[in-house]
């Protein structure tokens, strides 16, 4: 496993509860398995069969599906596959009360620095690879905001 996946895994391991750690290890094993089978087939783990997204929001959707949907749900409703293992379920991004209660800066900080950075769950890992990429970060924030529309 290479690149951001290892960095995220290392950060998440430092922050996880025991249940979260078990869940993370299962996900990590699956990611390694996919990477190994792709590499064995002559490709790379980063290769996909779909064409690259052209707009920042389309790229954010792809990243959300890959990195966030397992907890936040494919449609941002907080119903991802890992929710039963979490001590605190993620919010539904469709909830107008949640949307009104959180600032754009808080969303961006949570993405870059993890849930704890904004007083939320430590189970949400940080994604430091967003730092120094304001367009990419803004697109992910805009995607989170778009779920309420």
Task: Describe it.
The protein is mainly α. It has a single domain (4-146), classed as Cytochrome Bc1 Complex, Chain D, domain 2, CATH 1.10.760. Helices cover 54% and strands 0% of the residues. It contains seven helices and no strands. The protein has helices spanning 4-15, 18-40, 56-67, 69-72, 96-101, 104-113, 134-146. Helix 6 (104-113) packs across helix 7. The longest helix has 23 residues, at 18-40. It is globular and about 35 Å long. The relative contact order is 0.15.
List the helices and strands and how they pair.
Elements: H1 4-15, H2 18-40, H3 56-67, H4 69-72, H5 96-101, H6 104-113, H7 134-146
Give the overall shape.
globular
Strand content: under 5%
Number of domains: 1
> What's the rounded overall pLDDT mean?
79
Report Rg.
15 Å
Give a brief description.
54% of the residues lie in helices and 0% in strands. It is mainly α and 149 residues long. It is globular, with a radius of gyration of 15 Å.
